[in-house]
Specification:
The protein has seven helices and six strands; from the N terminus they run E-H-E-H-E-H-E-H-H-E-H-E-H. By secondary structure, it is an alpha/beta fold. A six-stranded parallel sheet has the order 3-2-1-4-5-6, with helices on both faces. Strand 2, helix 2 and strand 3 form a beta-alpha-beta unit. Helix 3 runs parallel beside helix 5 and helix 5 runs parallel beside helix 6. The protein starts with 6 loop residues before the first strand and ends in a 6-residue tail after the last helix. The relative contact order is 0.13.
Length: 191
């Protein structure tokens, strides 16, 4: 329930999903929304654009449990959107995908449980279904971690954990649509 007492953390809060859910949460009357990301430039732009005292900014990385714990403390709900989402980046640097999407997600999950957060929503991708690339595999592992943690803590736990999947969001960062548009404009050739 979103109300003036809710304190919601968004990991990866400066990304496409983070910005969208942040706007919606503020419109719905959230008491406080915390943005955890490692991109200070995007945080500064967001701060200047929103100018809303209900938004608190945390510079940190989900790979670092201490920065996750600091942002998590006292939160009532979490949207875990921080991830490496670019298929080529994850293919070229698969260990980085593991460090962020798997180990970083474990940090978020464990921190949420230990902080007794009411709900944790982990964002996944359609690419986690029968994954064929490093990004899909790493997000599938994130789902496995979330499911295992939910099973471990049981249905009577303070924290409810769920995963949601969504596909290629049109023209979001990492979407293939801008690439296809460039190819069409170049007469079908790769730009």
């Amino acid at each position: 329930m979103i109300d003036g007492n809710s304190r919601i953390l968004i990991t990866g809060g400066t990304g496409s999903f983070g910005k969208t859910i942040l706007t919606q949460l503020l419109e719905d009357g959230a008491g406080e929304v915390r943005v955890l990301s490692r991109d200070e430039e995007k945080q500064d732009a967001m701060r200047a654009d929103l100018r809303d005292p209900r938004v608190r900014y945390y510079i940190g990385d989900i790979r670092d449990r201490t920065s996750v714990d600091r942002a998590m403390h006292g939160a009532t709900a979490v949207f875990h959107a921080a991830a490496l989402k670019q298929v080529p980046s994850c293919e070229f640097f698969p260990l980085e995908a593991v460090r962020t999407n798997v180990l970083g997600s474990e940090n978020v999950i464990r921190s949420a449980i230990e902080s007794r957060v009411g709900s944790l929503v982990c964002l996944s991708t359609d690419k986690a279904v029968h994954p064929i690339n490093a990004m899909g595999v790493s997000k599938a592992m994130m789902e496995k971690l979330a499911n295992a943690a939910a099973r471990e803590i049981g249905t009577d736990a303070d924290t409810k954990i769920c995963c949601v999947r969504y596909g290629n969001v049109m023209c979001s960062r990492g979407s293939v649509i801008p690439l296809f548009m460039k190819q069409i404009m170049a007469g079908g050739r790769s730009p």
